[in-house]
Write a structure and sequence with these properties.
With 135 residues, the protein is α/β, with parallel strands linked by helices. It is built from 3 helices and 7 strands; from the N terminus they run βββαββαβαβ. Strands 3-4-5 form a 3-stranded parallel sheet. β1 (6-8) and β2 (11-13) form a beta hairpin. The mean pLDDT is 94.
Amino acid sequence: MAEDKLIVGGKPYRSRLLVGTGKYKDFAETRQAIEASGAEIVTVAIRRTNIGQNANDPSLLEYLPPSRFTILPNTAGCYNAQDAVRTLRLARELLDGHDLVKLEVLGDPQSLYPNMPETLDAAKRLVKEGFKVVV
């Protein structure tokens, strides 16, 4: 069992737990919770969390450095393929070429059910651009 690692995007992980960064009061509390969980992969809603796109605000990356955690940028809040692709291109630029991403294109703001045609369109475009897409 000690050798039973989770492989995501070609990289091995000890923990199978993936955690998000939403719902915490600040970045310090976010870091404390994630460290306590033992998770190594952290999903980040790029449209809602600053990872460097706003130089005037603190960056989550100051608290969760990519050298220690795998940042899994996601497209939470995107309702079409164009916005999702643009969001993940921005994330790749801000994360120095990082290509592992979580894609979600919403179809309904109430239920948060996915818009499958838009999700498929975005996935095809992202894979063509070299992204490793988790849907």
